[in-house]
Amino acid sequence: MQQAAPKIPSADVIHCIGDSHVSFFGGQDVIQPGWPERSDDLLSCFVTHHLGGALAYNLTRTGTQMRGREKLFEVLEQAVPPGGNVLLSFGEIDCRAHVLKQAAKRNVSIEAVVAECLEHYFQTVREAMERGFEVVIYNAVPSAIPRARKSGRDDDYVAVGDWRQRNQAIRAFNAGAKQRCADCGAKFLETFPALVDEQGKAVSWYYFDAIHLSQRAMPLTLRALAELFPERSYPSLPVAKPPAGAQIMAVIAKRLRRWLKMKPPLHPTRLQD
Fold first, then answer.
1. What is the mean pLDDT of residues 163-191?
2. Distance, CA of 70 to CA of 245 (rounded, Å)
3. For residue 248, is pLDDT > 70?
4. What single string gives the DSSP state of each residue in the chain?
5. CA–CA gap between residue 202 and residue 152 (Å, rounded)
6. Phi, psi of 149 (to 5 degrees)
7. What would the DSSP string read from start to end of 112-142?
8. In the structure, what pLDDT confidence band is assigned to residue 271 with cuts at 50, 70 and 90?
9. CA–CA distances in Å: residue 67 to residues 117, 223, 265
10. Distances in whole angstroms, Cα of residue 57 to Cα of each of 34, 120, 221
11. Which position has the higher pLDDT, 149 or 84?
């Protein structure tokens, strides 16, 4: 009989707030509903708050299309208990769709644009910490989209450049975020190195669509979380490694799902007299 995961004390529950990547912490391979709709969380250690496609760069600004800043502070004020644990997940969209574009447009390095983005992000991180919350910053996960893509369907995602360039931006983002966490006293939850192969390419087996991690990556994440908080009783799950041929099968499965979504519905043929 499988041993039940330990019950997590309410003081140790982490409120995961951010873009669609917080859906991963809900314990299902689905995108959680957007705030203020209640999330459907299966893991007792996490409560997710999906703010939509909010950018790390824009968290210092009000009145943006996504209202990321307004939603973030609504969650902190309305849903998180005083002094509660908060995990912020922002930056993947910036690195996938905006950093490379801005670097080329302004003729500056990727690292320079990333540093500017992080300055905006961590101004908001420090604001959250000043309100008494214990803050964890979640790393941006590797980009699994192989080449540039323009959004054309609901299940598609804008991507600039190739995966190497995007992962260069993500690595710079994560390294800078990790250092800034050390400087301000926040914690940094890092899983990126475990999600790429020897060439630095994202392992598709860990993803359930083009950009979002599947629950196959949850044991790795819980292990990294337990290293940040060894005094807490976060569940420990066996870590599975991708079997031989997993990359190819994962790509085929994702393409099949995309094809099925694109395929028009079948209509019954009318019988002729």
1. 98
2. 44
3. no
4. -PPPPPPPPGGG-EEEEESGGGGGGGTSSSPPPBTTSPP----TTEEEEE--S--SGGGG-SS-SS-HHHHHHHHHHHTSPTT-EEEEE--HHIIIIIHHHHHHHHT--HHHHHHHHHHHHHHHHHHHHHTT-EEEEEPPPPP---S-B---STT---B-S-HHHHHHHHHHHHHHHHHHHHHHT-EEE--GGGGB-TTS-B-GGGBSSSS-B-GGGHHHHHHHHHHH-TTS-----PPPPPPTTHHHHHHHHHHHHHHHHHSPPP-PPPPP-
5. 23
6. -150, 135
7. HHHHHHHHHHHHHHHHHHHTT-EEEEEPPPP
8. very low
9. 17, 33, 36
10. 20, 5, 25
11. 84
| Pair 46, 14: CB distance under 8 Å | yes
pTM of the complete model: 0.87
Give CA–CA dist 118/173, Å, rounded.
7
pLDDT tens string 194-224: 999 999 999 999 999 999 999 999 999 999 9
pLDDT more than 90, % of the chain: 77
Is domain 10-262 annotated with CATH 3.40.50.2000? no
pLDDT attached to residue 195? 97
Q: Per-domain residue ranges for the chain?
A: 10-262
